Amino acid sequence: MQVNGSQYEPLTWASIPGWNDDDHLAAYKAFRTSCKPIAAQQGVPPDSKALGSSLRDPCRIAKGLELADTAKAKDFFEQNFVPLRISRLGEDAGFVTGYYEPVLDGSRTQTDVYNVPVYRRPSNLFVRGKTQNSTGLPNGGQVFRKIGRRKLVPYYDRAAIEDGAIAGRGLEIAWLKSSTDLLFAQIQGSARIKLPDGATLRINYDAHNGYPYTAVGRVLIDRGIIPKDQMSMQKIREWMDQNPDGAKELRRQNRSYVFFREVPLSDKDEAVGAQGVPLTPGRSIAVDKALHVYGTPFFIEGELPIESEQSKTPFHRLMIAQDTGSAIVGPARADLYFGAGADAGKVSGRLRHNMQFVMLVPKGLDPIARGRKLPVPDERPSAKIAKLFPQTDPQPTAKPADVPVAPAAKSATKDTAPATPPAPAATAPVAQAAPVAQAVPLPEARPNIPQPPEQRRTRRYRHHRYK
User: Fold this and answer.
1) What digits encode the pLDDT tens for the residues 252-293?
2) Cα Rg of the chain, angstroms
3) Rounded Cα–Cα distance for residues 35 and 39 (Å)
4) Which domain CATH number covers 109?
5) pTM for this one?
6) 299-25-37 Cα angle (round to 5)
7) Domain range holding 238?
8) How many angstroms separate the Cα of 399 from the Cα of each of 336, 405, 430, 453?
9) How far is CA 124 from CA 100, 136, 147, 151, 154, in A?
């Protein structure tokens, strides 16, 4: 097993802070939700990711266990998994943020109040390496639009789309009150739109235009508008509402643009993650899909401002990887899902914290097998033995006191040669250096480039040292 760019160490269950205090039954229910598509896999080739298809074994066991006790759920994880503390190489902790499902006011038709379109995926959007009508996250491929029969060019960026590049093509799913509402729906990846007749329209991520995501909060921090320690989604929204012109320019710093699809979900149903299963508030996380397998349990431990911005609430919870996002990159990076609505938005909006990550690895894998084959350097000698064999650099041969040093000879010992090689000093007594020259032959000098005595001594020393 190998997770690229990471470091990890095996743990015991007793050494994980807060492990015994969690509600393992809630985590088990979320895990079983992920297991439905995993356990049904048949003859799937080995995955290139570290866990590969190893989750099928514990998932097939869980399929036959209708547990109703948290102690038995805890025992299930301990019997079928091995805990590994994991982090990015060179770091001692991971990093978490939060996300939620916004609830927005909107309309099926354009009005004076609702005039910001929510677009579905355009038919001329092509993702290299995928079919035109494929679903999922096309973040890994280049995105193009077709001109004529053959020519492909990068798709429109956010500024062009906001200026009407794809308007009037019948792509509008609904209309919102403000571009800020749309931006936050795009950042979260899903939304519930409350229609004037009381019905709810549910939308989920379908595709994006191929440009990398730029965090508008980071732009505000870099410009000194909002201090880093005060940054939250609420702060961003407040600033945008108070600065309409600045908000337009800020949005366009993020050239990425998300397209949605309408999904048949009611108000009682949770949003569907990238794995294709409903998310569980407080138990689902988004991870880097290039490194991790959906369904992997992660125990996340530390302190988070759950109750308020100033609070430090102990957080030790077993979470299940069921989603992803273009900004979620790294072996110990997660977005915690808190559900739908304003309250969930307040909590998730203030999370930007370092946390400890423990990845649960199925026992079918040996997480330290590669470590057994890793060559280990010899142990350092003791201080007593080291004194018997002092390591000192040899000193160069002393120069005769009466040998004049030509200025060009100093630069000649470097990588740059003098522009005009000087002639040897006629008064230099080179006879003293002759015996050494006979004992250690020098390489032939380049033709037509006379060497001053100082340069000969330098090369003679180097040749002797590295012979």
Assistant:
1) 999 999 999 999 988 888 999 999 999 999 999 999 999 999
2) 32
3) 6
4) 2.40.240.50
5) 0.71
6) 80
7) 93-352
8) 70, 10, 11, 10
9) 30, 17, 9, 12, 11
